[in-house]
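Researcher: I'd like a structural prediction for the single chain below. Treat it as a standalone chain; there are no partners to consider.
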Amino acid sequence: MQLLRRLCSIQAPAGNEAKIQEFLIDYINTEKKNWKVQPEIIHGDLFQHCILLVFGEPRTAVYAHIDNIGFQVRYENELVKIGGPRAVSGYKLVGKDSIGNIECELKVDDENNSLSYVFNRIIDRGTPLNFKPNFREDSQYVQSCYLDNRLGMYNVLRLAETLENGVIVFSCWEEHGGGSVPYIAKYLWERFELKQALISDITWVTEGVHHGKGVAVSIRDSGIPRRIYVDKIASILKEHEIPFQLEVESSGGSDGNELQKQPYPIDWCFVGAPEDLVHSPDEKVHKSDIDSMLKAYRVLLDVL
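Model: Treating it as a single chain, here is the predicted structure.
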């Protein structure tokens, strides 16, 4: 879990993904010598803070977003949300501005429907603030801020160790409206005509999706993937005896929703571990679901 712990400690709210991109490039360049296949590494100005890893002759792309939710300083001590973080008075927030490091508290005013911070000075306007990392694990669970989507990133970095054919996409802005998936999908279509995608992201524990019952395969959220593709994925997982749960929700979304809006015939499906206490400092995932998620991706990238 040391890699996951390190990923969860890096602050990268949507629009400020530079630090996590830097970590990923360094990690990939250090570890790729141990991987089964050496990928083509694609990044740079044309891809902003995104990274693409191309292995062999790809048939499927896996998307994992690298940004997290958070808060941003407005005027005086006001805060606005980046994405949809859970807001509770007393949450510890950290960041850095022109004066130095910051550790402050979140204050929620329900009466005025406003957010602010409690600190001993005014913080530079525009400064992003993130939940203070507090990574915990026991024999069954891991718990931390930003398991969504550091766990999705962890999954694809482990997948890269054995992947022979496929593309791993580290995308940006997913938590705050997206924006990087369209140009990446265009690039992958024009170069490889990739018609299949999986979304390595984290979903919710609900009344129908539970801890310890396997990775969630989403039939729908606010977007609806093509059912024939979802059924194919479920059939493959059943055949290989990998635990999974079918998810049906009416809200929520992922990079898959952006793929569905592109002018290319790309099938996509969200396949990810469920977590409790979503978008809080205490996101919680069962270790067996992490294991089934990684096994699922290794099989799916081999068979699809």
